[in-house]
Amino acid sequence: TLFPQTITLTGEVVNPGQYSILDGDTVLDIINRAGGYSDDSFTEGAVYLRKDVAEQQKLGFQRSADELEDSLVSIISNMNVQITEFSLAPIGRLISRLREEEPIGRFVVDVGYLSLKTDPIKNFRVRGGDSLYIPKRPNTVSVVGEVLYTASQSYDPNLTAHDYIEQSGGLKEAADKDRVFI
Question: What is the pTM of this model?
Answer without folding.
Answer: 0.70
